[in-house]
């Protein structure tokens, strides 16, 4: 078990690593750059983290874990409409990009540098998430809540539609994160509705 | 003036170049690779095209020109509703990605390697296109056709939403290009509608 202090320090290193990967690319970032950014000697940093591969793995696993666990929770909410379920997932995507921009960016772009078997595990987790999300859309169409769209077309249109938030959103923009989120949600949910 | 035969040969070289840039990256493609792909000696190819920079410039200019001229045409159609105008632009984006995938991919990703002054000209053309598209959305909101969304949020949600077609669409998928286009258009237009 990691002590709390060690866990907090490790998460700080992971957060700084995500920022560096986003800024300089995964390939363009060295463990020495990272040590400089977190204010540690490279040798001390290895007490917290073994390698760049391990950092990438931990970031991708954490983000994938958030999506998977939220989907599972939403699937097990029997009273909600399909629109409410899809809305919860769209809001999750936008909020994660606003609140955890660098980590989401790493999970969106740098996952391809994962070594095996983590690469296969990550791709399977993503596929299983996409299938679960598409199933909610399919069930919403079957229940007459949504217009008769191909579930995979609707799914990828939604996932792609929210992606620009990653490139655009910076704290201090004239639009608040809530206004941004509400407009995108309003557009995508009206887009699905029958 | 280029002779017709020379123009056709040159367009063939540009099309092959776009495929190579998409496959191997702009930086990873050499003029020698390209000559091999079009079946010419490198020396003969220089009769048609001066450099990799010139190829990139011609591809980006052509794609930007299509968007700009279509927008101008649509802006000058006084009878149409704003929904019809926006629909025409969304269909243009999807069709260009289906029919001219590699060239659109180059204009979407590799424009950043353009040398100056072409880089600035390309960025200005793109900005002017985005402003014109956002103006149509703003006018549609003002006319009561669209729900009260921030025009720039609606614009980037639409532009981002159609982007996945670039990665997904291959001829021979179980869904036809028309079905794909119609589903995305149905979703995005219902999303805008009041």
From TrEMBL, chains A, B:
Q: Please indicate if the UniProt record lists Transcription regulation as a keyword.
A: yes
This one is known as: TetR/AcrR family transcriptional regulator
The Swiss-Prot or TrEMBL record annotates one GO molecular function as: DNA-binding transcription factor activity
DNA-binding region(s), chain positions? 30-49
Domain HTH tetR-type, first and last residues per copy:
7-67
Pfam families hit by this protein: TetR_C_24 (PF17932), TetR_N (PF00440)
Q: Which organism is it from?
A: Hymenobacter jeollabukensis
> Which key words are in the record?
DNA-binding, Repressor, Transcription, Transcription regulation
């Amino acid at each position: 078990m990691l002590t709390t202090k060690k866990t907090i320090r490790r998460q700080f290193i992971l957060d700084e690593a995500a920022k560096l990967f986003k800024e300089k690319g995964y390939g363009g970032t060295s463990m020495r750059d990272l040590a400089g950014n977190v204010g540690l000697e490279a040798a001390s940093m290895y007490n917290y983290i073994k390698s760049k591969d391990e950092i990438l793995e931990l970031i991708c696993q954490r983000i994938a874990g958030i999506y998977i666990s939220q989907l599972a929770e939403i699937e097990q909410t029997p009273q909600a409409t399909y629109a409410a379920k899809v809305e919860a997932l769209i809001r999750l995507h936008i909020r994660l990009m606003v609140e955890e921009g660098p980590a989401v960016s790493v999970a969106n772009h740098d996952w391809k540098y994962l070594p095996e078997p983590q690469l296969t595990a990550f791709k399977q987790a993503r596929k299983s998430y996409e299938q679960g999300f598409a199933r909610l859309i399919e069930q919403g169409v079957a229940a007459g809540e949504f217009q008769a769209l191909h579930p995979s077309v609707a799914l990828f249109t939604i996932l792609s539609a929210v992606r620009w938030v990653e490139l655009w959103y910076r704290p201090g923009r004239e639009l608040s994160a809530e206004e941004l989120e509400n407009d995108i949600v309003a557009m995508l949910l009206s887009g699905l509705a029958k």
